[in-house]
From TrEMBL:
Protein name: Endolytic murein transglycosylase
Organism: Thermovirga lienii (strain ATCC BAA-1197 / DSM 17291 / Cas60314)
Lineage: Bacteria, Thermotogati, Synergistota, Synergistia, Synergistales
Enzyme Commission designation: 4.2.2.29
Keywords: Cell inner membrane, Cell membrane, Cell wall biogenesis/degradation, Lyase, Membrane, Transmembrane, Transmembrane helix
Annotated site, Important for catalytic activity, chain positions: 226
Length: 348
């Protein structure tokens, strides 16, 4: 009898040991996953936080610290690296509650960002951008441009007086915005910051004055409209500067299109009769640059205007494929036009 009790006790001890082992195995293997799935990270009211494309763990941590969502940004960076989200965080709008560095990092890891975007396209005119915001977001873009405070701080002192000229200091791109706030205001702030960091920094602080910048900006806008080929932009910029230095009329068709557009008429093709329009933007009739930019230039067009190609070309004519034939003299130019016309006829 005593022996039987001893055997039962022995078996019971083993059962308890096995159950305990399973319990602790569960704690080690499954509990963290269970806790992460069911635990609410952070406390208090969440805030909308916009994380832009290309932001690093450091910039995100600094932004969340400024928003009062985490007291220790260095600790947040540590956990973002630990959880492998410092370089893989997706852009968009996050709803984040205040919390410890680990809690905030877990929110960033588990949250699915809401993405609302505004796109500024290169080559668009002031009127076209204005219509874009009115039709899509029911916002008056011109009112935002009039406010210097709407721009990135480092850009405010170099803005031209006319609101329509200020579009050139917005870098074309897609920007994430927070719903419920002015999309136009957010786009202007983000795009002017991008311009300053990617273009303004290249020009250099010593050259950031209104007159010099407006000239470069206007050339960049002409280049943007004259060619879509990146490899030709610096060459065309060189032609523009060469003609300016010789006091030759620029004769840029895009300025004629812009002048007619100001009158509400859209030209799909520039004919000889269109060249007679009386406008300060008509570079066939008025020498020098137009009074301001005619569109929002891409970064490639900005770089072309800042670093034009050095050459002796004064003329160019467009080919069917969108590229151009460049000439140094009017005689060569007439020959290029003739050859180009023949090639077009032969291809039909």
């Amino acid at each position: 009898m005593g022996k039987t009790k001893t055997q039962i006790s022995f078996v019971l001890q083993h059962v308890i040991l096995v159950v305990s082992f399973i319990y602790f195995f569960f704690l080690i293997a499954w509990a963290p996953t269970y806790i992460e799935k069911h635990q609410v990270f952070g406390r208090g009211e969440p805030k909308n936080v916009l994380i832009a494309t290309g932001e690093t763990g450091k910039t995100v941590a600094e932004k969340l610290s400024k928003e009062g969502l985490v007291d220790d940004p260095e600790g947040l960076i540590f956990w973002m690296v630990k959880l492998s989200i410092d370089r893989s965080i997706k852009p968009g709008i996050y709803r984040i509650k205040p919390g410890s560095p680990w809690e905030v990092a877990k929110q960033l890891q588990t949250s699915k960002p809401f993405t609302e975007k505004v796109t500024l396209y290169p080559g668009k005119t002031y009127r076209e951008i204005q219509e874009y915001f009115k039709n899509n977001y029911n916002e008056d873009f011109s009112n935002v441009l009039k406010k210097k405070g709407a721009f990135y701080p480092s850009v405010r002192d170099i803005l031209p007086e006319r609101a329509e000229d200020r579009i050139v200091f917005l870098l074309p791109d897609t920007y994430y915005v927070i719903p419920g706030e002015s999309y136009a205001s957010q786009a202007v702030k983000a795009a002017s910051e991008a311009w300053y960091k990617r273009v303004g920094s290249v020009i250099g602080q010593s050259n950031l004055n209104k007159d010099h910048l407006l000239k470069i900006a206007t050339v960049a806008s002409l280049v943007e409209k004259e060619t879509a080929l990146e490899e030709e932009k610096k060459t065309i910029a060189g032609v523009i500067y060469n003609r300016l230095s010789k006091s030759m009329p620029l004769q840029v068709d895009a300025t004629v299109v812009y002048a007619w557009g100001e009158k509400g008429i859209k030209l799909n093709r520039v004919l000889y009769k269109h060249l007679k329009i009386e406008s300060s933007y008509n570079t066939y009739l008025v020498k020098g640059l137009p009074p301001g930019p005619i569109c929002i230039p891409s970064i490639g067009s900005w770089m072309a205007a800042i670093f034009p190609e050095k050459h002796s070309y004064l003329f160019y004519v467009a080919k069917e494929d969108g590229s151009h034939i460049f000439s140094e003299s009017y005689k060569e130019h007439l020959k290029a036009i003739k050859v180009n016309k023949k090639n077009k006829q032969d291809s039909k």
